[in-house]
Amino acid sequence: MSHSQESGGRRLDRRRFLTTAAVGGATIVGASALGGLDAEAAFADPMPSLDAAIPSAFAEGRIVAMNRNVLDVAGSHGERHLIQLTNATSIWKLRTTTAESIEVGDGLYARGAAMPDGTIAADAVWVNIVNVYVTIRGIAKDRLHLTHGSDELVGHIVPDTTTASYLGGALTADLSRTRIGQEAQVLGAWRPADGAIDIARVSLGH
Amino acid sequence: MHGSHLRPVSNAKGFDMACGSTSLWAGEATWFCCGNAWGSCGSAGTGACGTCQSAKNMAAWPNLSAACWDITRPDLCGENMPRRTCGAVMNVRHQCSGATVCVTLADCGPRTKSFCGEAACCNGACRTNRVIDLTPSAFTAIGSLSSGKLPVYIYE
């Protein structure tokens, strides 16, 4: 898997690019704005330790403030993170998107490089992403009613986005084979306002 | 992270354990959240071992205990992985990129039996059946959360 992109006739390492961009105070733009960056491929990049002087970092929590290209994140265990978005940051919020879709109150997981000033230069940020094991309790045209443990959830079916996989088969937009009582894995984006989930993919089991 | 063997980590009891290079299993890795959390993960708890946190490199194993096995039943999908208990460490390596993360077992899972035959593929090669669940920290070390699943080799 490649961790670099062609730029000006030479290979440009992605991690080096994002840390350089962070130091230089790059403005907020989605990775796709770079053109040469394949956002999906960038998400899949595992962020290896290419340079021991730049340790990798991970953060999770909820955004409590945003200041231009820096997200102020309160971790779930009381820690605090300042996450820098750069031109090289890939952003997911139900789908690959741009920084403009991020809001205060959103939850996130971020992967990146630890900067000397204590911030994290983000390589990838997954906003409000959840991946929960559920049982289907009800089916409507535009949503699934689910239970996750003892909690009830609403999973919204998003046109042109939600897909299903039946018994490990290929992804399809056809959700007509879902059945009440089925166990399923739902990957989607949590809605902070009401606790529901916009479904990206539902994997139906036995 | 890449190609590292015998990287020391702290286990649940606080002393160093080593992630090894002896092949243990292969299959599909998925991800889950645990510990204090936001969103739908808020009720997840700290897992069967009481130590699980999403921001640490941890994992759930289908044969963490007899009671765990009764829930996950990987044998129904042809997977008879050995018992490994809380605090055991494993190296999980992406089948194609070679990216590796050392994880500590902290929970029971995934529910292998519910998804028999499910595959995760890369470069035309697939691994079938859910055999390990990784925390977001561990999963993002070797792949993307939005993929939901990865083909992996597991070493100890």
Model description:
Chain B: This is RlpA-like protein double-psi beta-barrel domain-containing protein. The complex is a heterodimer of chains A (206) and B (156). Chain A has 206 residues and is mostly beta strands. Chain A folds into 2 domains: 10-127, Beta Barrel (OB fold (Dihydrolipoamide Acetyltransferase, E2P)); 129-204, Nucleic acid-binding proteins (OB fold (Dihydrolipoamide Acetyltransferase, E2P), Beta Barrel), CATH 2.40.50.140. Chain A contains 2 helices and 15 strands. The longest helix of chain A is centred in the N-terminal third of the chain and has 10 residues, at 14-23. Chain A is elongated. With 156 residues, chain B is mainly β. Chain B is 9% helix and 35% strand. In chain B, the strands form 3 sheets. A 6-stranded mixed β-barrel of chain B has the order 3-9-4-6-5-10. A two-stranded antiparallel ribbon of chain B has the order 1-2. Chain B has a two-stranded antiparallel ribbon with strand order 7-8. In chain B, strand 5 (89-94) and strand 6 form a beta hairpin. Chain B starts with 7 loop residues before the first strand and ends with a strand. The chains are: A mainly beta (206), B mainly beta (156).
